[in-house]
Structure formats: C-alpha cells, structure tokens
Design brief:
The complex is a heterodimer of chains A (193) and B (1253).
Chain A (H helix, E strand, L loop, with lengths): L1 E8 L4 E6 L5 H16 L8 E2 L11 E7 L2 E7 L5 H19 L4 H6 L1 H11 E2 L2 E2 L4 H36 L24
Antiparallel strand pairs in A: 1-2, 1-5, 3-4, 4-5, 6-7
Helix pairs in contact in A: 2-5, 4-5
Chain B lengths: L1 H12 L4 H10 L4 H17 L3 H16 L8 H8 L4 H14 L11 H8 L4 H14 L2 H14 L5 H17 L4 H10 L6 H17 L8 H10 L3 H14 L4 H17 L3 H17 L8 H16 L3 H17 L1 H5 L2 H7 L5 H14 L5 H14 L3 H20 L5 H11 L8 H14 L4 H13 L1 H5 L9 H12 L7 H8 L9 H24 L3 H19 L4 H22 L5 H6 L12 H4 L18 H6 L4 H5 L14 H17 L10 H7 L14 H5 L7 H28 L71 H4 L12 H39 L12 H12 L5 H15 L5 H6 L8 H7 L23 H22 L32 E5 L3 E9 L6 E10 L4 E9 L5 E3 L11 E2 L9 E10 L6 E12 L4 E12 L5 E2 L5 H9 L4 E7 L6 H12 L2 E6 L2 E8 L4 E9 L2 E8 L2 H16 L2
Antiparallel strand pairs in B: 1-2, 2-3, 3-7, 4-6, 4-8, 5-7, 8-9, 10-13, 11-15, 12-13, 13-14, 14-15
Classes of the chains: A alpha+beta (193), B alpha+beta (1253).
C-alpha cells in the first residue's frame, strides 16, 4: 500500500499532497515538513530509500523518493510494495506529467495542482497502484479533459476569454517567470518493463 | 433562462480562479496569511451563490488551500453540492475536494450515499470512475456496507477501466466492512483471470494485500497464482505474486519446493532488477521455510548470495541498499553463507550513505560468532569514535549492545571484556542511550555471578569518576549509568575492595545534581555499603573506622534529606535516623553489624519481562466477572483506576504461584510438548546458551587466565577492552594446544580413533568461555504458557479480515441490497452454495478432532515411513530423493490413502491444494508404465520419489497419470476423485455461466462423530455417461436450491485419443418434463457448445443446466455429443450418443436439519411413510450412513448406536426423512416423505446402491 504521495520543492513548499489515510491538516503539514527535512539533507548520489520510522504509520513504512530539478517526489509505502517498482512508478508519473504538460516544470504543478491530482488518480487509487502503463494513463486523462472541454462549450467561452485577458494584463506570465532552470528534466532511466 | 446563464458567466469573470489565487499568494509573500484569509472570505461568499460553476470554482480553490494546511471542513456540505452536479467538470472537482478532506468523522458523508450510488451506475464511465476514485479515499463503514453490492456489480462491468477500479476499491470496502469479503471473494478470484491485464493486475493487487495480513486463508489460491506466475509477463503482477508467495511459503513448505525452480529460472532470465530482487527475496523466504533438511538447496542459497553480492557491489546505491536488506533475511537461517561476505559488509559500514550503513549494521548483528565477536565489536567501537552525528552513533551503540547481548549473551566468551566495552561506551558524548547501557550492566552483573567481582570494581571506578560523566549537563543521558553503578556497588558490596572509598564517592555533594531517581538509588545503596563497612570492621578491634563511617553518613545525608524529590527525601531521612541510632549503639560498643546487614540480606533474582503477562489464569477464575455489583455509569467514569499497579515494573512483582493441581499441570505441559513436536513450524529450541556454558566439556581443564587488572583500572578514561582481544587470542592458542595434547593422549590410548583430531580449523564449539559462567535465567511463573502471540495488535483493522474464504456462503452473508433483491443477486457467486453454514461448524470440529488423531498417529507413521524408505532403497538404488521430503508430506499422503478422508467442501479445497502440491513430481505415464512398481505398499510415495525435479513446474501434467495400471484400485479411485475435484474447480473458474449451484451433493458425508471410527472408503458420484475410442464422459447431477426447477449436470470430458478434440457440441432431446437450458435466441433443438477444447489426454468439466417440472419420477434423456477430431493431417467429425439418467436422488439436496425441527416435522403428520429392508449388508454402520449421505444427498440428524435419523430435501421443497436401523447385516429403513412416489423412487435407488456393493 502507498500511504502518501508528496511533492514539494527544494525549499519544502508543498506542490501536491495526497494522503491515503486521514490526518488532520496540522499533522499533514508536519509530515510534509519532517519528510522534507529528512530528504533534503541527503546527497544527490545516495540511495533513494529512507526508513521513515514513525513518520507515517510504523516501522513497516519506507520513504521512496526521487529528486528532479527543483522538485522532490516522495512516496511513503509499506513493505508490500516493491522498492524498485515504486521508483519506476515515480518515473512513470513524472514522464506522464511531462507528456501532459509538455515539458513539465515546477510552475505547471504550482498552477495546475488539480490536473496533477487527476493524472495521479489514474495511476494510484486509494493507495494501490491502478495503472502503470503510461499510454493508458494518458489516454484516460485526455478523454476526460476532452469531456470537460465539450461541457464548457459556449458557456465556458467568456470565462476563457476573461482568463486570457487576465493573463495578458498581468506582467508575469507563468512560463516566463525566471527561477533558474526549473524545467524538470526527465532522465532516461532503464525502463521497468 | 439564457440570460441567466450569460449573467452567471459574466459574474464569473470577476471571480478569482485557482490560478489567480495561486498568483495572488505568490505576490503576497510577506502577508500570506492575511491574503489567504481574505480569499477565504471571498470563497465563503462564492459558496453562498446559486451558480454551481461559482461554487465549483470556490471548492477548487479550497482544495488548494487544504494542501497548504488550512482546515476546509466547514465547506463539506458545499463539496457535496458540487459532487452532485450533473456536469463531469464540476463533479470531478467535488470528488477531488472530498477525497482530500473527507474522513470517517465527516458527518455530511452520510448524505452522499445516494449520490455516489447514482454516479456508480452512470452511463458515463468517467462519472463512475471519478466516483470510485473519490470513494476509495473516504469510504466509511456505512458507505462500504451500503455500496458494496453496487461496487461488486461494477466488477463485471463491460469497460475494463471501470472493472479495474471496482476491483481495487473492493479492498477498501473489505477493510471497512469485513462481512463483504466472503460474498465478494469468488468474483474477485474470477478477476484474476480477466482478459484485461489492468483488471488482472488490480485483482492480484487486492488479493496480495489481503493475503499479506492473513496468509493462511489464501493458501488455496496458490495453484492459481502459480499459473499466473508462469504465464504473466507483466512485471508488476509478477512482483506482487512473487511477494505473495513469499508470505505463503512459511505456511506450506511444499509450496516452497515447487516454487524454487521457476523462481530460479526467473532469476536467471529476467533483466528487470526489481523482479530479480523480489525473486531472490522469495527464494530466501522459501529457503527459510525449508531450512530443515534440504541440503540440496545450498545451490539456491549460493545463487541468492551471489546475486546479492552483485547488487551490493553495484555502484547504484539503491541496489546496494536492497542487497543488504535481502542479505539480512538470509542471515537468519543461513548465517554461514553470509559470513563469507563479511569483508563486503564491513566495507559498507564506511559508506557515506546512512541508510546503507544502518543496513550493514543490521547484518553484522547476525554475523557474529564466538570467534569474531570481539573483533567485530572492536571495529564498531572505532566507528563510534569516528561517527559524526549523534543519531548514527546512537544507532551504533544500540547495535553493539544488541550484538553482544543477543540470544542470552550466546557469543560472549569473556564477560570482563563486555563490561569494559560497556564502561567505554559510557564515555560517548551526548548519547540518549544511557539507560540501555545501564540495564545491560545490571543484567550482566545480576545474571553472571562470576563476573560480579570485576563488575563491582569497574562500577566503583565509574562512581569515583562520576564527575566525568556528569560534568556537562548536555551529557545527562549517560548519567543513567550511575544508577546501575550505584546499585551494583551496593548490592554486591561484599566484593568491593574498598567500600569506604566508594561510599565516600556516593555521598559527594555533587550527587545532588543528579536526577532524583538516581539519587534515591545512591542513598539506598549507601546504606548497603554502610552495612558492609560495619561488618568489615566488626571483627577487627578498630572500632574507630566504623564510627567514622557513621559520622560520614550523618554529615552527608542531610543534603539528601533536603532534596526536592520525595523518594530521595524519604529514603534519606529514614536512613539518617537509622545511622544515628547505630552510632549511639556503637558508642556503647554494641555489635550492630549483624543486624544492619540483615536489613539487606537475601538475593534478588531476575524476572523475565513477560513474566507478569504469562501468569495463567487459574481455572474457575473469571477476570471479567464483577466482584461486586457493577457501579453506576457516572461512578465508573470518575474513577481513573489502578494506574499505579499497571505501572509497576515486572522486576518487583513476584509472580504469585497459582494453585493448579499437579496433574492438570503435567497434562498441560504434555499437551504443549506434543503440540510443539507436531508443529513443523515450531522451532525447536537449540541448545540454549545456558546449557552450553554448563555442559561445556571439561570445565576444569580451562585455564583460568590471570588478568592483571590493576593497571587499566587505575586509569579510567583509557580504552582497555582491546587487551582482551589479545588475551583471548592467547587463551585460545593455549587451549588449542592443550586440546591437541589431550587428543594425542587419547590417540595413544585408543589407537587412531579420533580422525578429526587436529585437522580442520577451530570450530565454534572449540571455543570455551574464559570463565565458568552461570547465566541465571530469568524467572517465569511456573505454568507460564509458551504462546508468543502477545505481540499481535488487537486494534489491527486487518484482523477483522481473517476470514475463512473456503467455507461455502450462507444465505445470511449476502451483501445488503437496497431494492430489487432477487434481480441484483442473480450473480453466480452467491447462488448455489449458500445453504450449508450450520453444518459447517460441525464439520470444523470433527475435522479438528481428526487432526488430533493424525498427530497422535504421526510418530507411528513416521517410523513406518522410515521403514518404507529403507525398503525402497533396497529395491532401487538410484532413487534417492525421498530422503529429503519434509516429514509432513509422506504423512499427508499416507493419510489420504489410508484414511481416505471423506470429501467435504472445505477439505475438497484443502485436498485440492494438497494434490496440486504433491502432484507435480509425478512421473510421466511412459515411465510409470515401464517401471514396475518396486514397493507396492508405498505407491504414491514411490511415484513421488521417482519424480525428476524438472517437472516441478508442470502442474497440469498430472492427467496422463490416469493411464496408470489399476493395480491398486483403491488408490486410483481416490486419486481420480481428487482429480475430479480439481477439474471441477478449474471448471468453476472458466465457465461461470454454467455454474448454477453446486451446493449439496458430495459435501455431506462428514457429520457427527463418524470419522472417529473406521476410515471410510473413497466414493465418487460421477458415473459413466458414454465412452468411445476418442472420448469418455462421466457425469453427476445436482439440484439447485435457489431455483426449484433446475438441476445442474456436471460432465467431465476426457480425451482418450492422441488427437485434439474441438468444436464439441452437447445436445439433448428435451422431454416434456425436462429441458436443457439454452441461451436466449437458440432454437429448442440447438446444441450447446462446450466452452473448451481438449488436447490429447486432458480432461475438463462443463456444466449444463436443465429445467425440470416434476421431480417425483426418475427420467432418462437421450442426447448426442458431436465433436471434431483433429490430428496432424486430418480432421474428422465424430458423434457419441448418450443417455442422461436423472434419478430422483439428483433432485435431493443435502440440507442440515436440527433434531427438534426434525421431530416436529415427523409429528406434523403430513408425511406418508414407506419402508425398505436390505439383507446381507456387510459394512460398518457409519459406512452405510456415509454412503447414503454421499450418494443420496442426505444428512445425519441424529445417531444413536446402530440407529440413525437422516434428512434431505428436494429442490422443490419435499421433505424426506429416513430412520435407518441395523442389526446382523440387515438394514431396515423407515422413510417418510410428503410425496409418496418420490419416496418410493428414492428408496429404490438406495436399494440399488447397496445391491451394487
């Protein structure tokens, strides 16, 4: 079982948090903070597993994480999951995000956390791995987005226009913000399959 | 209307959407909280509007704020509103918000039930998908109960997208509503073979998750998983299955044997590291489960260790970590194989990655031996010195202590060395583990009597240098050590060289800065020291010294009397008064030493930590019963009861001896021993360390090493444990030499008897401890129970899922359905096998009884088994494999052939598994035919023994065995039976549309106390339908209780030819009364296609449903089977005619009946009676009953001596009652039934059954 999936940046700011067990908001924030502390002090070239101890659940649990550019992707899992399998799952997740957002970067996650949630929901459901095939995931996500668009139809047009105007008027366009090299590079790792 | 929409859209223009919110937060870095609070106000306004688009937007923003840590539960109702929008866009937003912030305590959740149900049945698959995803996060017991049936229906949805989600969510439903597990399980199992890989993977996922917690209930799925493992190419699925097998093998060693080979193959063939790693892991689990008596698996161990070494040496830190992790599992059972890689592991201790260092430390734990303990600990001590960061150093410290103290100090040969190590560890800065060191010191000093002199000297030194430990307030964790030091010095003060000096050290003013509980120990033990000093000086004339001591105490103790700590204060003032009194006596020259030391006389024994828990509850004592009338509610709330007692440390609690009479005790002990002996998973106690020490040969020969302790002892602060290493080396050398001498002597005495004399390296046993050490074992209550299940957490939610899945379903277990009950339940799952529950419990208990009997017989059988093996060895030398069979297997086999357990639904599953597990190594038919059976009495074992390992992975190849000669008719019959069951099960998986009720029938035999008597002969209800040179058909007919007009005919088709049989069509000429049920749209004369093809030698089973109107008469139906025989070059169309015989018996269904209901039925007078007399029936009465039960679907209501009442019911609800009596080979059956012609026919059939035998 996957107990929680967290994405935060190099400064510990949460970009996505998905807990498959209930915690209060305060506890959730504390878990994110502590996880960040554990993960961020580790070197780049050490192993991707951390015994989280009492962080979530018990000693049966592990933190399995990957660090891409400015973001940490952390999965907290119990012993029924294969460590290397989860690492590959993170890779699939990031590659899927990359496909869905076209060169995903931290800002995509910042402004479209709902979309990230929707993509994640096609991969992991209730803490269990639902789908690992990237093409299948993307097909389902696209189909749902298409449905959303068709529903918006004419009624949605003014809203879209407004949103475009807003973007035009504002000095900062999300993609133009300069926070260094924020695009998440997806390295080609030996595929799982 | 249109205007309203436009207006709404225009309104929206001015609302912030999620992007605006995020942007706003980013632009207000300084006053983020303030900005967000204004945003929340806005959101509250938005939520008040009617426009659902506005609401959805607001909820979307709330979801984001929730991630930032803001509580949004106040908007729960609005979230429900958005969830119930008809538009997918908004629905998705609503469900996402709900999944992020709903939980069991959210009260609006109960409003969602109907909405979710609606969404689940939505024609749009994404509505359903979104609802399932959301529900998976916030499902509550209520939701689970109300929706379980809807979700179960979705498991058979046409879209795989929905199916896989429905399958996955079932796990959550099971967790919240365990009652749903049994009804839903058959369908879940069915999904393991879903054509869609995603659904299959989901089903594997769920079952693995379930099985991980309660593996024993899922053992019967092993064959299915095995098949998946050998056929699947999806690595995710493979990993899950392999992990699952890892959990199952400890329960069934034979499974492990079967797995080894395919796993080894996978290890060799796969390129995916993750899969390789899991394979290695499971092989390890298998090896652990087989660890006894499987010498030929050393190759597998070597393979694993080799592969792991490659992982550990890999530059990828992840692989290194996992390699070490897996290595630690091997370590437990095969320490030797791991120990050879000590270099590698020690190297990992230097790794820069802490995770890896910690794993390596874990490994060290198991790698120590008597020989290398000192060396390894020395290395660790070096690491302790080097280590930066207190966490890692603390970890090292605990590991050192763990390593040394493991299994009762098994590996410590020199306790002086250990004490020095402990003392050295006290110099660690800032450790949190002072108490750990302290408890070790106490433990060693108390339990190892020989070490006390040394320990006391060391402790005295520690006390003397207490300022080193306490000097820095940051180090206060370590001052716990002083607690131990003070107590040891006090308790064993007779060993002190200079008690006066220690006493002085303990009363220094600085002690007052120590924590209270330590001061208390100081004060108390100062008193003990005082008594020792007094006694020392008593004999001598020097009374001055004794008086000086008293004076010292009187001067120093007031310091403690002023302590803020109550305990210290109390003890100090008490002792102060005592000393003042003693001083008075001293001044009068009264001898007081004797009396003072009497205060502290007696020895304290260590008590095992679990002792208190293990005190058994005496018979007749009910701890839950109220002693007095229960107090009123309010009272009990005020009372915070008895925490005082609970906190009491076990050390102080002397277990009270409970009064159980000796006999009972002896009996219990015996039973326990028996149980342990028969339990293959009970690890027999290896010779305990205690024994090792006591029985160590030739204790008197051990040279007592004189250690000059004076030098290091006077220089505290310098490491001194190293010297022991050298000393130990020398000692061992010397010992070895001594031994050699001795051996030589022996040699001279008895010419060359000792071949092992001086060859080979020093083995474990050769190392004798430096001292004769008597480790006092911890005390346990006398009749403590050996069980160790106290570790289980009673609150584990998975405990509720420990449910027997093989039991047939009861009516009461159906999932709750809101409406259209009959229609909704028209799933094959619950039908048919839903009526046998009451009987089940009986079966269980009788089965248990049988188990016991088996155990009793076990020894006898074992010896018999041995004999057989010997015999076999005489016959054929080249068959040498059976020796390695785990002892359980032969017993099992013998059991089936001798006892021939009557089939029940539960045992059918079990024996099915047994069969699968034992069938693999059956030799191919050719071999079987040509090899004359060497030892006829041991048929099955021989065939097993002859099995080459290579066949282990072909479980399906068992069928050809049918060709085996019918030399041992009984056995063959039995085997066929098992096979039939296997086929039946296989069938069930494949063709559920035919599967309408297989309850009843053969499931009835076990009942009452029958099987405690003579074993029953094997029986089968399958009879020949038709046969030609190509195919053979056997069939059995069973009624379907769910539908009073249906019977199910199970036909086993067996291909007897060398050709492939396909396109089989089964057709029956319907009569007015009975009709074959054909699918909708088929004409009344169309045949049914048999849903499988038959390769040569294979058999398979299909089920056909017939509808019948009248069941009072037996009846025959003519039918034809047409099929195509396809050989390599040609194919021909063939046809086989048959006659299906519907007996009246086949309309009966085994139905349990209680004797009171039975009596009422007989009294009612509605039944017509008839009777039957059978002459010359020569079989035991219980066999007779079993036959009637088995062949005619009756159940025994009551049995008294040679008289029994039986009951059965027809599918149309006719009651049939029998009273069977026997006397001198004559059986009389009085029968009653509400339908006389049915009764007459049934009796005729019974008569026929007995005339046949």
């Amino acid at each position: 079982m996957i107990k929680a999936i967290l994405i935060f940046n190099n400064h510990g700011k949460p970009r996505l948090s998905k807990f498959y067990e209930h915690y209060t908001e305060d506890t959730e924030q504390q878990i994110i903070r502590e996880t960040f502390h554990l993960v961020s002090k580790r070197d780049e070239n050490v192993c991707n597993f951390l015994e989280g101890g009492m962080l979530i659940g018990g000693s049966d649990n592990k933190l399995i994480y990957r660090h891409y550019a400015t973001l940490y992707f952390v999965f907290c899992v119990d012993s029924s999951e294969s460590e290397l399998g989860i690492l590959d799952l993170i890779q699939v997740f990031v590659e899927t995000l990359d496909k869905c957002f076209e060169n995903v970067c931290e800002l995509d996650l910042i402004f479209h956390v709902d979309k990230v949630h929707n993509i994640l929901a096609e991969m992991v459901m209730g803490g269990m791995v639902l789908e690992t095939n990237m093409n299948e995931i993307i097909t389902q996500v696209d189909a749902q987005n298409k449905m959303e668009k068709s529903e918006a139809g004419i009624a949605g047009a003014p809203a879209r226009a407004v949103s475009a105007v807003k973007n035009m008027n504002l000095p900062e366009m999300p993609k133009n913000i300069n926070i260094g090299d924020i695009s998440i590079k997806v390295p080609n790792l030996p595929s799982f399959k | 209307m249109a205007l309203k929409i436009v207006k709404g859209s225009i309104d929206r223009m001015f609302d912030k959407n999620l992007q605006d919110l995020v942007r706003g937060i980013r632009n207000h870095k300084e006053d983020e909280a303030k900005y967000i609070s204004t945003c929340i106000d806005e959101i509250k306004q938005e939520l008040k509007q009617d426009n659902i688009a506005v609401k959805a937007n607001a909820v979307c923003k709330l979801t984001y704020l929730q991630m930032l840590g803001y509580d949004v539960s106040w908007a729960a109702f609005n979230i429900v509103e958005v969830m119930s929008s008809s538009k997918f866009t908004y629905k998705r937003i609503g469900y996402l918000a709900a999944s992020q912030c709903f939980h069991e305590g959210t009260d609006v959740i109960m409003l969602t039930t109907n909405q979710i149900r609606k969404d689940l049945s939505s024609p749009n698959q994404y509505d359903t998908g979104v609802a399932l995803t959301g529900l998976s996060c916030f499902v509550t017991p209520d939701l689970a109960r109300d929706l379980a049936n809807d979700i179960m229906t979705l498991m058979s949805h046409t879209k795989p997208y929905i199916r896989k989600k429905a399958v996955l969510i079932m796990y959550k439903v099971f967790l919240k509503y365990p009652e749903s597990l049994r009804p839903a399980f058959p369908r879940l199992k069915e999904k393991l073979e879903d054509p869609d890989p995603g659904v299959q993977s989901a089903a594997v996922n769920v079952i693995c998750e379930l099985a991980r917690r309660n593996p024993k209930n899922y053992l019967s799925l092993a064959p299915l998983f095995f098949k998946l493992m050998t056929s699947s190419t999806n690595n995710w699925v493979l990993i899950k299955i392999i992990k699952l097998f890892g959990a199952l093998t400890p329960l069934e060693p034979r499974l492990g044997k079967k797995l080894i080979e395919p796993l080894t193959n996978l290890i060799h063939s796969t390129s995916a590291m993750s899969l390789l790693y899991e394979c290695v892991n499971t092989v390890i689990a298998v090896l652990i489960s087989l660890s006894s008596g499987m010498p030929n698996h050393s190759a597998s161990i070597q393979l694993c260790v080799q592969k792991l070494r490659i992982l550990i040496e890999d530059s990828d830190q992840n692989l290194k970590y996992l390699g070490l992790l897996a290595m630690s599992k091997i370590l437990k059972t095969h320490p030797k194989s791991v120990q050879s890689h000590k270099d590698l592991i020690l190297q990992c201790l230097d790794d820069k990655d802490e995770s890896i260092r910690l794993r390596a430390l874990d490994l060290l734990y198991g790698m120590v031996s008597k020989k290398n303990l000192m060396e390894i600990v020395k290395k660790l001590m070096l690491h302790v010195d080097k280590a930066e960061g207190t966490t890692y150093r603390d970890e090292l410290l605990t590991k050192i202590i763990d390593i040394c103290s493991q299994s009762n100090y098994q590996y410590i040969t020199n306790f002086e060395w250990y004490i020095s190590i402990l003392v050295e560890l006290t110099r660690l800065e800032g450790t949190r583990h002072g108490h750990l060191i302290a408890s070790q010191m106490l433990d060693v000093a108390i339990r190892v009597k020989a070490i006390r002199v040394f320990a006391v000297a060391q402790m005295a030194m520690l006390l003397d240098n207490a300022h080193l430990l306490t000097g820095n307030m940051q180090r206060n964790g370590i001052c716990e050590v002083l607690y131990a030091a003070a107590w040891i010095c006090g308790e064993f003060s007779e060993h002190l060289e200079d008690p006066m000096q220690t006493l002085e050290a303990m009363l220094r003013p600085k002690v007052a800065t120590l924590p209270g509980h330590i001061q208390a120990v100081y004060v108390q033990n100062a008193a003990k020291l005082f008594s020792t000093v007094l006694r020392k000086h008593e004999g001598s004339t020097d009374s001055q010294a004794a008086q000086e001591t008293s004076q010292l105490l009187i001067e120093r103790l007031p310091l403690f009397v002023q302590s803020a700590n109550l305990e210290v204060q109390e003890r100090a003032s008490c002792i102060l008064q005592l000393v003042k009194y003693i001083q008075k006596l001293q001044q009068k020259d009264v001898e007081v030493a004797e009396e003072v030391s009497a205060l502290f006389a007696g020895e304290l024994n260590p008590v095992a930590p679990k002792a208190q828990k293990k005190v058994p509850v005496p018979d007749g004592l009910d701890l839950d019963a109220w002693i007095n009338e229960p107090p009123s509610e309010s009272e009990s709330e005020d009372e915070k009861p008895k925490a005082v007692f609970a906190k009491e440390e076990p050390k102080h609690s002397r277990p009270r001896h409970t009064e159980v009479d000796e006999k009972e005790l002896a009996r219990r002990r015996e039973a326990r021993k028996q149980e342990q002996a028969n339990n293959p998973f009970y690890i027999k106690s290896s010779p305990s360390s205690q024994k090792v020490y006591q029985d160590a040969p030739g204790v008197e020969h051990i040279p007592v090493v004189q250690i000059d302790l004076s030098v290091p002892l006077k220089v505290p602060g310098l490491p001194m444990s190293d010297q022991y290493l050298k000393l130990e080396e020398e000692r061992r050398q010397k010992e070895k030499a001594d031994k050699k001498k001795k051996e030589k002597k022996k040699k001279r005495e008895k010419h060359g008897k000792g071949k092992r004399a001086d060859s080979g390296p020093e083995s474990e046993e050769d190392i004798t401890p430096a001292h004769h050490v008597d480790i006092v074992t911890e005390e346990m209550p006398e009749n403590a129970l050996p069980s160790d299940d106290d570790d289980k957490d009673p609150n584990d939610p998975h405990k509720a899922l420990d449910i027997d899945l093989d039991k047939p379903l009861a009516d009461s277990e159906k999932l709750p359905v809101r409406t259209h009950r009959s229609e909704a339940l028209k799933s094959p799952v619950e039908e048919g096998d839903g009526e046998q529950i009451p009987q089940e419990t009986k079966k269980r208990s009788s089965k248990e009884k049988k188990e016991k009997k088996k155990d009793k017989d076990k020894d006898r059988k074992k010896s018999k088994e041995e004999k057989k093996k010997k015999k076999k060895h005489k016959h054929d030398v080249d068959e040498d494999e059976p020796v390695e069979l785990p002892s359980e297997e032969p017993v099992q086999l013998e059991d089936t052939s001798e006892v021939a357990a009557p089939p029940t639904s539960t045992s059918a599953e079990a024996s099915d598994l047994d069969f699968w597990l034992s069938s693999a190594p059956v030799a191919p038919p050719t071999k079987e035919a040509t090899t004359p059976d060497p030892a006829p009495s041991s048929g099955p074992e021989t065939s097993l023994a002859a099995a080459p390992d290579s066949e282990a992975d072909e479980p399906k190849d068992v069928e050809p065995e049918e060709a085996k000669s019918s030399k041992h008719k009984k056995k063959k019959q039995k085997k066929e039976k098992e096979k039939d069951e296997k086929k039946e099960k296989k069938k069930k998986r494949h063709h559920h549309h035919h599967h309408h009720g297989d309850g009843g029938g053969e499931d009835s035999v076990q009942n009452g106390t029958m099987e405690e008597e003579e074993p029953l002969p094997p029986m089968s209800n399958y009879c020949l339908l038709a046969e030609n040179s190509y195919i053979k058909m056997v069939y059995d007919i069973q009624g379907n209780l769910q539908d009073g007009s249906q019977v199910v005919v199970s036909v086993i088709f067996e291909n007897k030819s060398d050709s492939f049989l396909k396109s089989m069509e089964f057709n029956v000429l319907d009569s007015l009364n009975s009709k074959l049920q054909r699918p909708d749209g088929a004409g009344p004369h169309d045949g049914l296609v048999v849903p499988f093809q038959l390769p040569p030698g294979v058999s398979n089973e299909a089920r056909f449903v017939f509808s019948v109107q009248s069941i009072v008469m037996p009846q025959k139906l003519k039918g034809t089977l047409t099929f195509i025989v396809k050989s390599e070059d040609s194919s021909t169309h063939e046809k086989l005619d048959f006659k299906l015989h519907f007996t009246c018996t086949s309309y009966l269904i085994t139905t349990p009946c209680y004797s009171d209901a039975y009596a009422k039925l007989l009294e009612s007078g509605d039944l017509k009676s008839s009777s039957l007399r059978l002459e010359g029936v020569n079989m035991p009465f219980h066999h007779l009953l079993a036959r009637i039960c088995f062949h005619h679907h009756f159940s025994v209501v009551e049995r008294i001596d040679s008289c029994a009442s039986m009951y059965s019911r027809s599918i149309q609800g006719h009651h049939v009652c029998l009273l069977v009596k026997t006397a001198d080979q004559t059986v009389s059956i009085d029968a009653k039934c509400d339908e006389p012609s049915l009764l007459g026919n049934v009796l005729d059939e019974i008569k026929q059954t007995f005339s046949q035998c």
